[in-house]
């Protein structure tokens, strides 16, 4: 029995003492790097478990204790408060933001676990990690994102103490990386991105944008608020969005709240666009998707008795999008290789962070060149 399985069985015995569980170890196919995943079959229900599964060295480099504690905080504090806000305002059930049902967790360092409903029982599936989303999926995902952001605005207005607590707890702080392996991995990622760019002018612009003395400063900028501090997801990409059809309509369920932080709403949307779509999609749908996000934000806020122009008007949204493009490009350098890597080549989190500097492939080259061209156009890099 692995240590992670032992931790999970101990938690299940505490929460369901009269039921004998059957466990199935699951694979994310290269989409998850911090947890061991399990399907849990009990006589009364089916569950999904995430158990911390990361080497001590990587735990320190990735600040993994914050990741694990953040997810439990979201489920135990924010999810219940957000649900009550929606009930207080009589938001129709089909227009609510819904979290997966949470059954409990283990906060002990080294044993961090969250236990959730198994969304497969309700027909949810994970989309193809390698494919660009289509308009239907993007529209549904962005609707869910707008509703999530709207609840943070409402929390700030109606539950100011909770919102202030969340902002204090979940504000990104600059972290100086001392580990030489981490620095080497970052240099390799940057070099790999530069090498796939064929247009020399674009290559020079890329190097000016991402060849920095302090990468962490740029990462912190991407994770920081601008005009207003809103709880943002932080890793909003298709791998963290499960979907199903209900009466021919696509429904999106957001999962993986380890990276939630007080940030900029536009950054969440930009992250999704750059990591979840390809250049042909953006050519046809980028502007309509921006408008769809802001329209859905306005509608979600209206249901919570807030006017969008009072908290996040269109002009502010547009301005913040443009400001976030340069750090978003650096995020693409780091995260897009993980999106496009073959499952068999996905890195393990057993201690050597240099393994995260993945070899580039043709899919990465195609997607990244498209990202670069669009970022140059959007922000006049």
Automatic annotation (TrEMBL):
Pfam families, per database record: EcKL
SUPFAM superfamilies, alphabetized: Protein kinase-like (PK-like)
InterPro entries in alphabetical order: CHK_kinase-like (IPR015897), EcKL (IPR004119), Kinase-like_dom_sf (IPR011009)
Domain spans labelled CHK kinase-like: 114-303
PANTHER family per record: PROTEIN KINASE-LIKE DOMAIN-CONTAINING
The protein's name in its UniProt record: CHK kinase-like domain-containing protein
Protein source organism: Bombyx mori
